[in-house]
Amino acid sequence: MKPSVEDMSKMKENSSVKEKVELKRELGLIGATSIVIGSIIGSGIFISPKGVLEASGSVALCMIVWVIAGIIALCDALCYAELGTLIPKSGGTYTYLFLGFGKFVSFLYIIQATFIITPGVFVVFMLTFAKYLVSVIPTCGSPELLEKFLAAAGLITLYLVNCFGTRYGAHVSIITTFCKLLALAVIIVTGLVAIAQGTTNELGTGFSGTSRQPASLALALYSAIWATSGGDDVTRVVEEIKNPTKSIPRALIFGILVVVVMYILTNIAYIAVMTKTEMIGTRAVAVLFAQRTLGPAAGIIPMAVVISTLGTTSISLLSSSRMTYAAARDGILPDLLSYIQVDWLTPVSSMTTLLSMSLLWLAFGEIGSIINYLGFLGTIFKIAIYVALIKFRYRSFNHVKRIVKVPLLMPVLMILMNIYLFLAPLIIEPQIEYVYVGGGFIVCATLLYLVFIHFHFKVPFYDNCVTVAQLVFRLSPPFRNADTD
Fold first, then answer.
1. b/e map of 376-396 (b: 16 or more CB within 10 Å)?
2. Residue 141: pLDDT band by 50, 70, 90 thresholds?
3. Any long-range contacts for 256-259 (C-beta under 8 Å, 24+ apart)?
4. String of b and e for 33-71 (b: at least 16 CB within 10 Å)?
5. Would you say residue 398 has pLDDT above 70?
């Protein structure tokens, strides 16, 4: 019996559905929240949370600064919650810049993010991971060589885990975030027990020693704000979050509140057990705290740093690769970087690019100073995001009903705050390198934009390379629909 025309049309429809190659929605509310918390809590709270205390000069002002930073982080989260629910596309900051200001601004952002800042941050995190791992295992030979080998091995392992499926990356995120919170909970409970037993050290000194220098106070707030930033990573993976209009704002708000409360309580625990001089002078605050209070169990802190850096790197690889993927899908980067592995439905090509750049920086580069000098450009892009939010309110998306709508005053205040963050390092510690490195990057990126985007220069044999990559790695261009166009 021959199939009817209706049966044939159904078969064709089912076939086309099966042929759709796109990212899968495998992240629930817990996974999204773990991305928010895990991307903020790195190794800093365990190693060097002393910046705020050192700059503020007193315990009371230090706590006030942390609270202010928490309020700012919450405002930032609410702004991103509006953007994330308004624009259901992966890419986060890149996507908002692309829709708000066009190709050139988004090109500048994605070039520094994909090829310099993100791989460089991976290297810093994984070298910290390796350093603390080496400290708890017996070793011989050159520690530096071993640390680089472990860092590379860790990066490749995380790359493979995230390639095999978004859910595996989410599992790593959830497990490592739980371990981070557990380690901080141990520190907090231990500190509270010490306080209950009468050990307070300088906790009751209030505003004694408060710095009167405006530059020092600015530096304290600057340090606290950067320590609580990073939660917006969740907006880079919008297309893989189940029910994003509800999950994104809940994950951002809950995640930020958890981090801020944990940070404040952790600093109270540190100050209760150690003096200000000890906190400022030590290279690893949590390790000294553990040695004072945990006895034989003090070894859990180095392992907490190992797990924390591993988890943060995994989350950043998961989210940053989606930013590169989104830019390639929009034609800002080579389209190969948007191709998806058909069996795992993950953007393997964009993750491979980030891994390759990370290994290059690990092997040959001194990335730390470059990150510092280019990092302040990130504040300019942040200002542009809030300007875009206001622009979307009255122009591009003015007709769209908003699930989350922040007061207009909020993005205005965030613009002013980020102008301060941009000017603070230039005023507090002016260095001509900011101009050289930042200006040099903009000039080079502009030339690349003119050649490849404006004049559409085609690299010889590019299509052949794409074909080979597709055959070897089973890659396919992503399915496009109305939500992602």
1. bbbbbbbbbbbbbbebbbeee
2. low
3. 256/36, 256/40, 256/70, 256/73, 256/74, 256/77, 256/228, 256/231, 257/70, 257/74, 258/37, 258/181, 259/36, 259/37, 259/40, 259/41, 259/73, 259/228, 259/231
4. bbbbbbbbbbbbbbbbbbbbbbbbbbbbbbbbbbeebbe
5. yes
pLDDT digits 0-9 by tens, 53-68: 888 888 889 899 999 9
List phi, psi (to 5°) of 206.
Answer: 60, -130
Q: Closest by alpha carbon to 38, among 283, 302, 262?
A: 262
- In this structure, what is the dihedral angle of CA atoms 236, 238, 239, 244, given to the nearest 10 degrees? 170
Measured CA to CA in angstroms, residue 276 lies from 58, 115, 155, 191, 272 at distances of 9, 39, 36, 15, 10
Inter-axis angle of helices 300-329 and 348-364, nearest 10: 120
Q: Which two tokens stand for residue 429?
A: 């510690």
Residues counted in the chain: 485
User: Which residues, listed in sequence order, are joined to residue 27 by a DSSP beta bridge?
Assistant: 241
Is pLDDT at 48 greater than 50 in this prediction? yes
Specify the pTM.
Answer: 0.89
- Residue 294 contacts residue 27 (beta carbons within 8 Å): no
Answer yes or no: are the C-beta atoms of 326 and 94 closer than 8 Å. yes
Residue 475 dihedral angles phi and psi, to the nearest 5°: -105, 150
Residue spans of beta strands (DSSP E) within 269-406: 340-341
Provide the 10 A C-beta neighbour count for residue 353: 22
The Cα–Cα gap between 46 and 284 comes to 7
Q: What percent of the chain has pLDDT over 90?
A: 53
Question: Which tokens go with 189?
Answer: 């409970």
- Average pLDDT in the chain: 87
Q: Residue 309: name the closest of 143, 139, 183 by CA.
A: 183
270-299 burial, b at 16+ Cβ within 10 Å, e below that, comes to: bbbbbebebbeebebbbbbbbeebeeeebe
Distance, CA of 187 to CA of 289 (rounded, Å): 8
